[in-house]
Amino acid sequence: MYAFEYLKPASVQDAVAQLAAHPEGKFLSGGHTLIPAMKLRLAGPAALVDLNGLDELRGIRRESDTLVIGALSRHREVATSDVVRDAIPVLAEMVGTIGDPAVRHRGTIGGSIANNDPSADYAAAVMALAATVVTDRRRIEAEEYFQGLFTTALEEGEIVTAVEFPLPRRMGYAKFRNPASRYALCGVCVAETAGGEVRVAVIGAGANGVFRPAEFETALMSDFSAKALEGKTVDPSDMASDIHADQDYRAHLVGVMARRAVAAAR
Ligand SMILES: Cc1cc2nc3c(=O)[nH]c(=O)nc-3n(C[C@H](O)[C@H](O)[C@H](O)COP(=O)(O)OP(=O)(O)OC[C@H]3O[C@@H](n4cnc5c(N)ncnc54)[C@H](O)[C@@H]3O)c2cc1C
Question: How many whole angstroms from 143 Cα to the centroid of ligand 1?
Fold first, then answer.
């Protein structure tokens, strides 16, 4: 690990100012992506601006038909929250599949979506539920937020403060995980929004990160059943390929996980 300066801001505003004063710095939340990268010297921020003391970034609450999750909410808090379980139970279950207990006790929703790993589960829910990412300076719709592998609409020094999830009529999630890391080789989230729109979001499989297979959504709009997806597939050339799974296998998994997610939706 390279040497770095450690900074402890007193407020979100203070954190933004501290990072502006250290342009080679980074925000720190759960540290479960950033610290391993620093240990491996894949990242060498000159300063860490630690967001962990900021109560403004905490809290999980329901506001009418919206579930608001503060950016510093740990995966375990979300997975075990009665508010989340009551409002969007499948979201709580999804977050309960992230990593292992150590990861869930430290990792945060803000860190996860800021990092935008193509296999990170939250992106599937943010996209399928048409959630809004709230930052210290604006609100960003899901569609605009995710911009490719490890790339988001966040500007330099912009802090995710919360994510707002509109409550769906129903939602299902199916994940095929790498047994070692628990990251998704393919995860599919299916949701019917309060307005009746069907949205499908795929993580772990696409070569450019989270995506929505339009053909699946069209089929489910007229018949929300696993049967409606029979024979539906995605183009393997749009899929990722690595030592864990090739493009054809991932394309196959998208169909299988989508049918499972629909069958499990509630
Ligand atoms: C062994 C292992 C298994 C894992 N398995 C899974 C899995 O199955 N599914 C899954 O989804 N994830 C998985 N993860 C990732 C885990 O969820 C991480 O916690 C998450 O990706 C990053 O969140 P963090 O809070 O730890 O962020 P950090 O590591 O603190 O930060 C990550 C990045 O986001 C930036 N950042 C942090 N917070 C904010 C903020 N509020 N606003 C703006 N930028 C911010 C940081 O500057 C940094 O660039 C796994 C991780 C490990 C180590």
Answer: 20
Closest CA to 151 of 189, 115, 106: 115
The whole-number pLDDT of residue 196 equals 96
User: What are the angstrom distances between the C-alpha of 132 and each of 85, 100, 173, 242, 258?
Assistant: 19, 27, 19, 31, 23
List the CATH code of the domain at 58-166. 3.30.465.10
Residue from 27, 52, 121, 126 whose mutation best tests the ligand 1 pocket (most atoms within 8 A of CB): 27
For 136-189, what is each residue's pLDDT tens digit?
999 999 999 999 999 999 999 999 999 999 999 999 999 999 988 889 999 999
CA of 74 to the centre of ligand 1 (A): 10
CATH of domain 170-264: 3.30.390.50
CA–CA separation, 153 and 3 (whole Å): 29
| pLDDT tens-digit map of 86-115 | 999 999 999 999 999 999 999 999 999 999
Q: How far is the CA of 168 from the centre of ligand 1 (A)?
A: 25
